[in-house]
Amino acid sequence: MTIPTTEGSAGTGAYRVLVLNSGSSSVKYQLLDMSDRTRLAVGLVERIGEETSRLVHTPLVGGGAERRERTGPIADHEAALKAAAEELAADGLGLDSPQLAAIGHRVVHGGLRFTEPVVIDDEVLKEIERLIPVAPLHNPANITGIRTARAMRPDLPQVAVFDTAFHTTMPEYAARYAIDTETADAHRIRRYGFHGTSHAYVSRRTAELLGRTPEEVNVIVLHLGNGASASAVAGGRCVETSMGLTPLEGLVMGTRSGDIDPAVTFHLMRVAGMSADEIDALLNKKSGLVGLCGDNDMREIRRRIDEGDERAALAFDIYVHRLKKYIGAYSAVLGRVDAVVFTAGVGENSAPVREAAVAGLEELGLAVDADLNGVRSDEPRLISPDYARVAVAVVPTDEELEIAVQTFALVGQARGALGQVHN
Ligand code: ADP
């Protein structure tokens, strides 16, 4: 979908959007003012269901307001959302405010059906439930968040924004695994991709940075957070991405292996007597950087490398080697590349990762300027020298803003379609 500008989008005087990202034991929330796209408050409730639950709330209005913290048991998502609503109300930003236009929910898996954000109704909720077998870790928590928010404000539009949606434009030959078609179809096994909200936002911002429209440019996006994924975006449409049926495939991540010979799994079953759940935990939680060297924070890994730690150095090299392979592969997929862009925690902050990932790729038109690469900034910026054929950029991601923009746009369109909005 094309994202309209904020102006005139909802048009009813309701201009705030609450973004909810519900995990299995946490809820992250942000309240945004869509008239100028600023954040009014951000918060996190973690360890839901434990004795040591914690809510951290930071109001961003009224200058000098300080972050507040509550500790003590928060039994479930309903209690978490109520607690968050109380904190918002204390800042004059309560969920009962007529200025709240909608709630936007991050939903991890939208399967093939949800190619764009949707206003949530019972039928949509059922469909998100039907996708639980392919997203057992994520969709149940997202559904709990949606149910809770709907119960609190049944009158308010609630929108689902899917992590997979941006990738639904992938051609069939990129999305299908080369396995028996009937088995694949029976179990909906294919490459869906994740982090789509970030890839969409960052690829669009990169086009802006280049002074072009998204339709005019081909971009390789490297989203390097704790989870990491690459995507190839041709003319604004995703044509390839590194995560697959689940977020396990692709790049080396903080705790995930990324690409691996699938035979490793049945080898471990047969030779090490490991169960499917144990191997799942091994590959998702005890692999990647943490498996290789014991640390998943790139800052710590760099510090250890500076002290001469060889395991940390090897982990770094494996991480960068994989990245390089994907840059090469996606250059081939795109044919012509206008920009390679780094984003998320590692991509935005680690100059050594950016430098090493691009080193030696001059034949592909890629180079990094050491001075530009060393600059620390929250702004989108180019880090390639003028002579480089392909721009290399750093563009901070903002998934919450993208969810809010898409939610607000959709609610505005829905109101417009009902004839309730005339401006
Ligand atoms: P998530 O996937 O949890 O959203 P983020 O995008 O916040 O992750 O990225 C978190 C990771 O970013 C950390 O694990 C760390 O490796 C890396 N990171 C954060 N800040 C820095 C920094 N200043 N330098 C290098 N790496 C950093």
TrEMBL record:
Localization, UniProt: Cytoplasm
Family statement: Belongs to the acetokinase family.
SUPFAM superfamilies, A to Z: Actin-like ATPase domain
Pathway: Metabolic intermediate biosynthesis; acetyl-CoA biosynthesis; acetyl-CoA from acetate: step 1/2
Organism: Streptomyces atratus
A GO MF term: magnesium ion binding
Annotated protein name in UniProt: Acetate kinase
Subunit structure: Homodimer.
GO BP, one annotated term: acetate metabolic process
Assigned EC number: 2.7.2.1
Recorded superkingdom: Bacteria
